[in-house]
Amino acid sequence: MGAPEGQEARRIDGKAIAKRVREEVRERVAALAKRGIQPGLATVLVGDDPASAIYVRNKEKACREVGMESIGVKLPGSTTQAELLAVVDDLNRRADVHGILVQLPLPVDLDSNVVIERISPAKDVDGLHPVSQGRLLAGAPGLRPCTPLGVMRLLDEVGVDPRGRRAVVVGRSLLVGKPVALLLLERHATVTICHTRTSDLAAEVGSADIVIAAAGKPGAVRGEWIRAGATVIDVGTNRTEAGLVGDVEYEAAARRAAHISPVPGGVGPMTIAMLLSNTADAATPHG
Ligand code: NAP
C-alpha cells in the first residue's frame, strides 16, 4: 500500500471530492423537492468580523448552488445574549429552516456554549450541540460535526478502510480531534489521541497507518515521522507569511505516505460540502 520507491504519495484532491459531494446533495435536494420539501439552512452572523462574513457568504452561496434555501440572519455586534437566543428560538420554530448554523466565534460578550445548546438538536447541522456529541459518543444516529465527516469521506474516497488500522489523531478539540477519533473508532480503527502533553509524538505518529493532523501548528507533524505507506489527512489551516499551510511538513511526508491531503485543497473544501450534506439529512423525514 506504500508509495512505490521514488514515487510521491497520491495527493488527495479535496476540491474534486467536495464537488462530488455537493453534486450528490444537489440530487438529494431535487428528490426532496419532488416530495414538497426544500431544505433550508439558516446562517446567523453576529458582528462585523470580516473573516466570519466571508465564511458565511461562502456557505450561503454553496447552499443556493445545490438548490437549498439560504436564510441569512445578520445581527449587530451589540446584540445581547437574550436577543440572540430569541433569534435561535424563532429559527427552531420555523418549518422552512432545517439547519441552523451560528457562525463562531461570537463577540466576547456572548456565550457560544449557551447559544449552541439552544439550537434544536434536530437542526444542529454543525454537530456541536452536546446532544449531537453524546449521540456520537454513544454510536447513536445524529448529526456529526462537518470537518470530521469530511475527513472520513476523504479516507473513503481513497479506499482506506479504517478497520483494524492504527489511527493517530493529533489534537483533542471538541471541534475536530475528539469527534474524528470517535468516528475512526466507530469504523473499527485502533485510535490514539495525541496533544501537547504527549511525551513522544514522533513515536506515536510513526506507528500510524492513518494520521489525522489537527493541531493548528505549522510543522507539528514532521514528514520524517510518517510511516512508509501511511495515509495522512491534514486538517490544520494556518495563515503564515508563506500563505496558508497545514500542520504536516507536506513535501517530506509526501515522500513516505501513500496518500496525503494538501493545504489548501484538502479538508478545507470538504467542510462546507458536509454542512450541505448534514442539512439535506436534517430535511429528510425519518421513520
Ligand atoms: P484547537 O482547539 O486549538 O486544538 C488544537 C489541539 O491540538 C489541542 O488539543 C492541542 O493540544 C493540540 N496541539 C497543538 N499543538 C500541538 C503540538 N505541537 N503537538 C501535539 N498536539 C498539539 O484547534 P481546532 O479547532 O481543533 O483546529 C485545529 C486546526 O484545524 C486549526 O489549524 C484549525 O484552523 C483547523 N481547522 C480546519 C477546518 C477546515 O475546515 N479545514 C475546520 C476546523 C479546524 P492541547 O489540548 O494539549 O492544548
List unreliable stretches of 5+ residues.
none
Structural category is alpha/beta
* Cα Rg: 19 Å
And the CATH topology of the largest domain?
Rossmann fold
- The CATH homologous superfamily of the largest domain is called NAD(P)-binding Rossmann-like Domain
Structure overview:
With 287 residues, this protein is of the alpha/beta class. The chain folds into two domains: 36-120, Leucine Dehydrogenase, chain A, domain 1 (Rossmann fold, 3-Layer(aba) Sandwich); 145-269, NAD(P)-binding Rossmann-like Domain (Rossmann fold). Helices cover 40% and strands 16% of the residues. It has ten helices and eleven strands. A six-stranded parallel β-sheet has the order 1-11-8-7-5-6. Helix 7 (177-186) links the parallel strand 5 (166-170) and strand 6. Helix 2 packs across helix 10 and helix 6 (146-157) crosses helix 7. The chain is globular and about 50 Å long. Bound molecules: NADP nicotinamide-adenine-dinucleotide phosphate. The site of NADP nicotinamide-adenine-dinucleotide phosphate has 26 residues, from helix 10.
